[in-house]
């Protein structure tokens, strides 16, 4: 099936710092979604992107749909302790019959 | 409150037993999905259903079965044929049509010994 390469695998940052993570694919995707998962809970949808080049914000979070349609980026500005968790990208490629492909996640730790 | 519920949160079974995980949604969503999550990994699709009385296999359907008799409900049965059933199971739903945004339940952690 489709594969998404999500990086970095883990990040340790100081409170107040900005964070950037990305997902790349060898295939073209039509939709990119970003989720956050707290330990032992289900993922929560943060941002949905539907158009190449689209830049969308949700509070301190900003995500971009790459112009090549093969990548997406998520930035978190001025991190706070509650940003801790695992961030997943998910993409929908053409011909995938509504099946999302998920990245393996970025584990974010925010140090006080 | 609209949402997706999964029960129970934790489930323990002996090897060789079938077990059914519950997933209910009151969002009036057409599509429902079951994923499996293993430590340090992304989500892998087990089964999905785009409409009542219809469902399709995902990437790792072997050893699992589902039914979709009601729009609100999509139970997953983990059978004894599933070789490595211990995992975190997540149910999701989406409105269907042109929307691909999936919303997840809280998950069920299944431990088989």
Secondary-structure-derived class of chain A: mainly beta
Largest sheet of chain A: 6 strands, mixed
Percentage of helical residues of chain A? under 10%
Supply Rg of chain A.
13 Å
Structural class of chain B: mainly beta
**What is the global morphology of chain A?**
globular
Walkthrough of the structure:
The complex is a heterodimer of chains A (112) and B (113). Chain A has no helices and eleven strands. Chain A has strands at residues 5-7, 10-14, 19-24, 29-37, 44-49, 55-58, 61-65, 71-76, 85-93, 101-102, 106-111. Chain A has 112 residues and is an all-beta fold. Chain A is globular. In chain A, strand 9 (85-93) and strand 10 form a beta hairpin. The N and C termini of chain A lie far apart (40 Å). In chain A, the strands form two sheets. In chain A, strands 2, 4, 5, 9, 10 and 11 form a six-stranded mixed β-sheet that branches. By secondary structure, chain B is mostly beta strands. Chain B has strands at 4-7, 10-13, 19-25, 31-37, 43-51, 54-57, 64-66, 76-78, 87-94, 103-104, 108-112. In chain B, the strands form two sheets. In chain B, strands 2, 4, 5, 6, 9, 10 and 11 form a seven-stranded mixed β-sheet that branches. In chain B, a hairpin with an 8-residue loop joins strand 9 and strand 10. The mean pLDDT of chain B is 93. Chain A binds chain B through residues 1, 4, 6, 31, 33, 35, 40-45, 48, 88, 90, 92, 97-100, 102-105, and chain B through 4, 6, 31, 35, 40-45, 48, 50, 56, 58-59, 88, 90, 92, 94, 100-107, 109.
What's a concise summary of this model?
The complex is a heterodimer of chains A (112) and B (113). Chain A has 112 residues and is mostly beta strands.
Features:
heterodimer; A: 112 residues; mainly beta; six-stranded mixed sheet; 0% helix; B: 113 residues; seven-stranded mixed sheet; four-stranded antiparallel sheet; globular
How is this fold's topology laid out?
The complex is a heterodimer of chains A (112) and B (113).
Chain A: E1 5-7, E2 10-14, E3 19-24, E4 29-37, E5 44-49, E6 55-58, E7 61-65, E8 71-76, E9 85-93, E10 101-102, E11 106-111
Chain B: E1 4-7, E2 10-13, E3 19-25, E4 31-37, E5 43-51, E6 54-57, E7 64-66, E8 76-78, E9 87-94, E10 103-104, E11 108-112
Parallel strand pairs in B: 2-11
Antiparallel strand pairs in B: 1-3, 3-8, 4-5, 4-9, 5-6, 7-8, 9-10, 9-11
